From TrEMBL:
GO terms for molecular function: ABC-type maltose transporter activity. It is a multi-pass membrane protein. It comes from Streptomonospora mangrovi. This is Sugar ABC transporter permease. The keyword Iron does not apply.
Length: 299
């Protein structure tokens, strides 16, 4: 067999043609990804720069700081009650995440495994609740807790317990639906075989089903934790005492009247608040994809 002759130079694609073909095939994807990356990193870099800016004002902040210092962090920890705000945010977020995961899992187990009168109506009711934002009921919640606080001050305004009850009322519906879709993917034969061996419903729930639905538990816990840490509107209504505020409410009070002067401390506080969120996200990231996709397959 005779060796093939090399292609003539005039028939080879030029470098410009190869570059144009690459741009049309793959280059635009890289360009879009680069634009999205710049769009996402710009506010983060600006906040980091503002937190390291010793002047601590918004007008003197820039993407690249002229000088670097920890003055804003020191002033935030010494001039404000940031430690108490930080502790309140973490305590409320952890308690809300744990309670929401536990209560939503039990409700999802009931809706997924049992057939009873009012089951479909209850599911549609949970679906209807999701259609309305929680802050639409803020006036009714305010009036209700004004009366409740007079009789039981432990669950009234300026209390973590009262705020936690409000958060639980708004988070159970959507998380119950998410968990129910995951519970539906677990074969019922596992429940039946365990009950044949003498297991009760509680034993089936805690010992068999919960280990199998760990991904969705982690996803719900992560989403609730992040939303609770970042929540501002309801917390600003319930928490008025300086020592009872969360980080979101406390930082807003710093920049509400003096936005330019306290912007450096505000930026430092947001960076400190991001640490537990990133830590929880990093710890639970292996469950996120499987938990969300599996729970969305079947409703």
């Amino acid at each position: 067999m005779a060796p093939s002759s090399p292609r003539p130079a005039w028939s080879r694609p030029s470098a410009a043609r190869r570059a144009a073909a690459w741009v049309g095939r793959d280059g635009w994807r890289h360009l879009v990804m680069l634009v999205v990356l710049v769009f996402a990193l710009f506010p983060i870099l600006f906040v980091v720069s503002a937190a390291l800016n010793p002047l601590g004002t918004l007008s003197s902040s820039s993407l690249v700081p002229r000088s670097v210092g920890a003055d804003n962090l020191v002033e935030l920890l010494t001039r404000t009650r940031f430690g108490a705000w930080y502790a309140n945010s973490l305590l409320i977020a952890l308690a809300n995440s744990a309670a929401t995961v536990f209560l939503s899992a039990m409700a999802a187990y009931v809706f997924s495994r049992f057939r009873f009168a009012g089951r479909r109506l209850g599911l549609y009711g949970l679906l209807m609740v999701q259609m309305f934002p929680q802050f639409l009921a803020i006036v009714a919640i305010y009036l209700m807790f004004s009366v409740v606080g007079e009789h039981w001050p432990q669950v009234g305004f300026n209390t973590r317990t009262g705020l936690l009850l409000v958060y639980l009322g708004g988070a159970l519906s959507v998380n119950t639906w998410l968990m129910k879709g995951f519970f539906d993917t677990v074969p019922r034969e596992l429940d039946e075989s365990a009950q044949v061996d003498g297991a009760s419903h509680a034993q089936v729930f805690f010992r068999i089903l919960l280990p199998l639905v760990t991904p969705v538990l982690a996803v719900v816990g992560l989403l609730v934790f992040i939303s609770t840490v970042n929540e501002f509107l309801i917390a600003s209504v319930f928490l008025r005492d300086p020592g009872a505020k969360t980080v979101a409410v406390g930082l807003y009070g710093m920049v509400a009247d003096q936005r330019d002067a306290n912007f450096g401390m505000f930026s430092a506080g947001t960076l400190l608040l991001a640490i537990p969120v990133l830590a929880v996200f990093w710890y639970l990231q292996r469950y996120i994809v499987s938990g969300l996709t599996t729970g969305a397959v079947k409703g």
